[in-house]
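The authors assume throughout that readers already know how a fold can be written as discrete tokens. For illustration, here is how one protein appears when written out as sequence plus structure tokens.
>
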Amino acid sequence: MKKVEVAKVTNKEREIINLISKFRFLNSIHIQKSLKHKYHNRVNNWLNDLVKKELVCKIIDKKDVTKPPIYCLSQKAKYILVESGNINKNFLKWLYKEKYRDEKFIEHHLSLADIYIFFLAKQKNNTTLNFFNKHELRTYKFFPEDLPDVYISTKTKEVSNRYFLNLFEEYTPKWALRKIIKDYISYFENGDWQGNTKEKFPKILLVSPDENTKKHLNFFTRSKINIFEEDLSFYLTTKDKLENGNTENIWQKVE
């Protein structure tokens, strides 16, 4: 078998590769904020170098050239990821078709990156933030069968919090939204989480595409849950509120 030549990368470029592997699709602003780097031009230089090395693909919207380019990994990046360890083998098989994914798929993952930036901005100095996307959760046996888009944990010396988060799009049918809520309630009642961990059941965060969908989710969830059950809680917000960057009072508890 012919050996594939892979260009050498710097530590910072390796960090960017690992970051893109986590979210699958990112723009340079996502990367700059995730790295907490001051200079946008420096981030662009790293990205351009990775594109030249054929480790990262650059996707440009030809219909709207004002939109920032989107970056995903190329097939050659798998050799860098394997060196880093802790990578889902199935994810490595997807790399050859990442840049050919449809627009809805890409936009959904970019929105998840926006949500990560929201939580990162909210993070305090003494807080540890862990953010796991769906493809990172596939090896965990006791998670819901229909995995959340994201599992989040925040931890200080005194307090830890855990969340399941689902991001709904405007094209998601209402029956699919209702099914996810019913599945969460069944998962809670079955006790899979409680039987496999010593942690409190995660809060469930549902991000709606608009206010009308949020109202629908609120009404349906209220009709299905026992509001006196303190260990099962749903919180709602809209995508706009998250993307606007306001970190205060954006979550509405279903009660």
Notes: The mean pLDDT is 90. The longest helix spans residues 103-122. The first strand starts at residue 26 and ends at 27. The radius of gyration is 19 Å.
